[in-house]
Design brief:
By secondary structure, the protein is an all-alpha fold. It is built from five helices and no strands. The chain has one domain: PSPTO4464-like domains (Diphtheria Toxin Repressor, domain 2), CATH 1.10.60. The relative contact order is 0.17.
Length: 89
C-alpha cells in the first residue's frame, strides 16, 4: 500500500473536521442520540458554547484530531439518518 500524500492527508483531515462541524450544528438532544466516544462528545458540547471565532476554530481543529482516532462511518450514518428526518435506532 502506498503511503498517503501530504495533500491526501490534509483532505482527509479537513473532511473529518467538516464532519465534526456537522455534529456541532446539531441540537444537544440529537448529539446524545449518537453513540460518540466520551472525549468527542465533550469536545462537541464545548464547541457549542464557544462564541469567539478563534476559540471555536481551535476547538474544531481539536474535534478533527479526535475524529482521526475513531471510525467515522457510524457517525456519518447517524448524521445521514438525522438529516433525512429519521430517528436514530
Amino acid at each position: 500500500m502506498d503511503p498517503l500524500s501530504k495533500t491526501q492527508k490534509k483532505k482527509d483531515a479537513l473532511s473529518l473536521q467538516a464532519l465534526g462541524e456537522r455534529l456541532v450544528h446539531l441540537s444537544a438532544h440529537q448529539i446524545k442520540g449518537i453513540d460518540l466516544p466520551a472525549t468527542l462528545y465533550q469536545a462537541v458540547i464545548l464547541a457549542k458554547t464557544l462564541k469567539k471565532h478563534g476559540a471555536l476554530d481551535r476547538q474544531m481543529q481539536h474535534i478533527g484530531a479526535l475524529m482521526r482516532k475513531y471510525d467515522p462511518q457510524p457517525i456519518q450514518d447517524a448524521l445521514r439518518r438525522i438529516e433525512l428526518g429519521n430517528h436514530l435506532p
